[in-house]
From TrEMBL, chain A:
<dbReference type="InterPro" id="IPR015847">
    <property type="entry name" value="ExoRNase_PH_dom2"/>
</dbReference>
<dbReference type="GO" id="GO:0005730">
    <property type="term" value="C:nucleolus"/>
</dbReference>
<dbReference type="InterPro" id="IPR050080">
    <property type="entry name" value="RNase_PH"/>
</dbReference>
<dbReference type="GO" id="GO:0034475">
    <property type="term" value="P:U4 snRNA 3'-end processing"/>
</dbReference>
<dbReference type="GO" id="GO:0071028">
    <property type="term" value="P:nuclear mRNA surveillance"/>
</dbReference>
<feature type="domain" description="Exoribonuclease phosphorolytic">
    <location>
        <begin position="103"/>
        <end position="167"/>
    </location>
</feature>
<keyword id="KW-0238">DNA-binding</keyword>
<keyword id="KW-0597">Phosphoprotein</keyword>
<dbReference type="InterPro" id="IPR020568">
    <property type="entry name" value="Ribosomal_Su5_D2-typ_SF"/>
</dbReference>
TrEMBL record, chain B:
<dbReference type="InterPro" id="IPR050590">
    <property type="entry name" value="Exosome_comp_Rrp42_subfam"/>
</dbReference>
<dbReference type="InterPro" id="IPR033196">
    <property type="entry name" value="Rrp43"/>
</dbReference>
<keyword id="KW-0539">Nucleus</keyword>
<dbReference type="GO" id="GO:0071038">
    <property type="term" value="P:TRAMP-dependent tRNA surveillance pathway"/>
</dbReference>
<dbReference type="GO" id="GO:0034476">
    <property type="term" value="P:U5 snRNA 3'-end processing"/>
</dbReference>
<dbReference type="InterPro" id="IPR027408">
    <property type="entry name" value="PNPase/RNase_PH_dom_sf"/>
</dbReference>
<dbReference type="InterPro" id="IPR001247">
    <property type="entry name" value="ExoRNase_PH_dom1"/>
</dbReference>
<dbReference type="InterPro" id="IPR015847">
    <property type="entry name" value="ExoRNase_PH_dom2"/>
</dbReference>
<dbReference type="GO" id="GO:0005730">
    <property type="term" value="C:nucleolus"/>
</dbReference>
Amino acid sequence: PGDTSVLAGLYGPAEAKISKELPDRAALEVLLRPKVGLPGVLERSREQLLRQTCEAVILGVLHPRTAISLVLQVLSDAGSLLSCCLNAACMALLDAGLPLAALFCGVTCALQPDGTILLDPTARQEQEARAILTFAIASTERKVLMSTTKGSCSVEEMQQCLAAAQRAATTIFQFYRDSVRRRYSK
Amino acid sequence: RTVEPLEYYRRFLKENCRPDGRELGEFRTTTVNIGKCLCSITTADGSALVKLGNTTVICGVKAELAAPAVDSANKGYIVPNVELPSLCAERFRSGPPGEEAQAASQFIADVIENSQMIVKEDLCIASGKLAWVLYCDIICLDYDGNLLDASVFALLAALKNVQLPLVTINEETGLSEVNLKQKNPLIIRKHPVATSFAIFDDTLLIVDPTAEEEDLATGTVTIVTDEEGRLCSVHKPGGSPLTGAKLQDCITRAITRHKEVKKLIDKVIKSLTPK
């Protein structure tokens, strides 16, 4: 959303290296490359978040002993980077036609110092905010698939952000539907 | 138990208990050792050893002096580093830090930052010239699940133990003078405590998972609260989806746990001070 853009490339299910293959499910690997510099500890933790989120929705048992690689390249970062990565990952999974248990979308909420909730903040709004919460919401019953917070907030504020994120998720899923329709209607 | 671990576990969960005899909401016995007398690291400025059941984590804090960064001249640094050496569990190999160690390091750094446990401005000695750098090394000695909780706890205990010597800058020479005789404890503003839960089969939530339970779980949630009941972090890296109500349940339990842990730390520290 906005000026943040992430390019996602999905490869698989392909043959896995023997050291990496799992006997009963597909092995998922996520690589996140920042715009400048080498991937560091922050990228590693983001990769872990993305990987576990994707593992929860991909029906890996249908493709045992294979490897699925997801490569994300950050093209520009103007705020809400993690949810942009989540959305890119999900669309890549859809585009590749991998069997999924549910769709997910990423929503970032920023809690401003005066208490108002802002969805999809820009970089400047993120800096000014008291807390930033990122959620991955699943399409089935709008449950929370992944959650990370930066900054501290009270429990009620978190619940409010969660509710707002779930409402926003509906809009994003509609966007997914429209994009896929456009792609395949040609 | 080795052939069909999931089924073995499910049978216990149906009875609402776990193979090691705990209830679903019960934590393992927690023990803390702080300081140079009880704990091993004598060269560190602050150290703590935490045992959560079998999971053993040791944290050493070393304070060094450095020049602050150009863009934040009045801030010091805190550098947490989590290591999972191969001696703690057979799945970790020696070599560069694996993904789990790096993700844990990032998590600890986030917790310190989010909870404002140590405010970086407090670490500054002379704006633009000298500041403290706290290297926090968290090493796992025995991994039996629930690494994040134990690490946060060890970090908190070690930081409470740190005594920083008074440093003054000599006006004429511009050099720093370290006064080892006069030591002040670190100013810790908030006391974050982490509580981890494992999710089974999309429904069941168990607290303080062991390594075996973590492997079988379909997801994990870690909630960090501070003493005011504010959330410093809700870390749920993927895994089965949770409804808002379940998450709320976890948060309430995390707040209760925080009180227990705080009492434990206070008790241990009080037993150290009359030296």
